[in-house]
Amino acid sequence: MNRKIALIGAGNIGGVLAQQICINQLGECVLFDVVEGVPQGKALDILAGLPVVRSNAKIKGTNDYKDIEGSDVVIITAGIPRKPGMTREDLLDKNVGVIKQVAANVKQQAPNAFVIVISNPLDAMVYTFQKISGFPTNKVCGMAGVLDSARFCAFVALEMNIAVTDVEATVLGGHGDTMVPLPRLCKVKGKPLTEVLSAEKISKIVERTKKAGGEVIELLKTGSAFVSPALSALTMAESYLKDQKRVLPCAAYLNGEYGIKGYYIGVPAVIGAGGIEKVVELKLNPDEQKLLDTSLQAVKSLVDQIHL
Ligand code: APR
Questions:
Q1: Of all atoms in ligand 1, which is nearest to the CA of residue 102?
Q2: Which residues does 3 contact at the CB level (< 8 Å), separation at least 6?
Q3: Which domains can be identified in the chain, with CATH numbers?
Q4: Residue having the nearest C-alpha atom to atom 7 of ligand 1
Q5: How far, in Å, is the centroid of ligand 1 from the Cα of 121?
Q6: Is the shortest distance between the CB of 228 and ligand 1 below 6 Å?
Q7: Minimal CA–CA distance to 7: which of 117, 123, 90?
Q8: Going by CA atoms, what residue is nearest to atom 13 of ligand 1?
Q9: What is the pLDDT along the chain (308 residues), one digit of tens a residue?
Q10: Which of 12, 76, 77, 89 to mutate to test the pocket of ligand 1 (most atoms within 8 A of CB)?
């Protein structure tokens, strides 16, 4: 069965997503943006490269929401990214307006889609999308945890000079400075991180993980990370489309899990054909639960500023 994937936002992340979807032949790709020419130009560039990698994927660039009609998956990067010195929270006002507009159009054209929001501030943007669209909460989620956990893994592997594939890590909480990397649950080939690295080194890795997005921005100066967010969202889309039921950390709607109700925040969740099929509850110690509660307060204070 041919699946249709719509990308709302044809900027840096949207462009990498479109490339990867086509190279991996995940489905038919529609790249949408409000700026004329950009989605069409990026689509044409990708189309011309596909014969080289022997991919028969279909791709179209558009400024017309009608083209996303009936999409199975919608991935949203529309909005503005951070520049040096900005926090994700600084994007709130501008991006709320964008997400409201996007949600109304996605609702009209692709009412059965599984939606992955990437626009920041992430947890508040997912919340906004779900409220405006009225989509079932299990069909709307946010991409952050896969990326934050990947950053944690990458920095552990760098420090230990070992393969990233032998490191497993989870980051919970909001996608901001209050995110909660969990060293106690990080495993290096089955061994707890706390047994293989000193507390000082772990603390440095945790801090670098929390600020990894900012580190990229300070270097790029013109925008924020775009390859790693795209690859992370792709993993989530693939788990849904192929019913892989992978356990992936993402911004999921909580209905009492972790003692939280009525908000989107980063937790591990099973993603399969049913969307967010289950929130996985990790047993947190009191310190970790306290950090998660603090992160929830940061998410709540943003959500409270949005008038829907
Ligand atoms: N509808 C659709 N697209 C829009 C809208 C809108 N109302 N407003 C802006 N866009 C488009 C822009 O034209 C641009 O092409 O969204 C795209 C955003 O792309 P970039 O500026 O390159 O940003 P990117 O790096 O892709 O990040 C997008 O993801 O990680 C987050 O913080 C990041 O919020 C940012 C988002």
A1: 1
A2: 26, 27, 28, 72, 73, 241
A3: 4-142 (3.40.50.720)
A4: 98
A5: 12
A6: no
A7: 117
A8: 35
A9: 689 999 999 999 999 999 999 999 999 999 999 999 999 999 999 999 999 999 999 999 999 999 999 999 999 999 998 889 888 888 998 999 999 999 999 999 999 999 999 999 999 999 999 999 999 999 999 999 999 999 999 999 999 999 999 999 999 999 999 999 999 999 999 999 999 999 999 999 999 999 999 999 999 999 999 999 999 999 999 999 999 999 999 999 999 999 999 999 999 999 999 999 999 999 999 999 999 999 999 999 999 999 88
A10: 77
Distance between alpha carbon 265 and the CA centroid of its chain, in Å? 12
Q: Is 175 part of the annotated catalytic residue set?
A: yes
Query: Does residue 128 line the site of ligand 1, with CB under 6 A?
Result: no
Beta bridge partners of 76: 8, 117
CA of 165 to the centre of ligand 1 (A): 31
For tokens 């792709």, the residue is 234
Ligand 1 centroid – CA 294 distance (Å): 28
Q: How far apart are alpha carbons 95 and 98 in whole angstroms?
A: 5
Map residue 113 onto helix, strand or coil: coil
Helices (H), 170-308: 193-196, 199-210, 212-220, 227-241, 286-303
- Regarding the beta carbon of 81 and ligand 1, being less than 6 Å apart is answered yes
Please give the Cα distance from 174 to 142 (Å, whole number). 10
Phi, psi of 268 (to 5 degrees): -70, 140
Cα distance between residue 227 and residue 247, in whole Å: 21
Q: Which two tokens stand for residue 273?
A: 């054909």
Looking at residue 11, the DSSP 8-state letter turns out to be S
Catalytically annotated residue among 175, 188, 197, 229: 175
The residue nearest atom 19 of ligand 1, judged by CA position, is 11
Indicate whether this model's pTM tops 0.85: yes
Q: Is the CB of 118 under 6 A from ligand 1?
A: yes
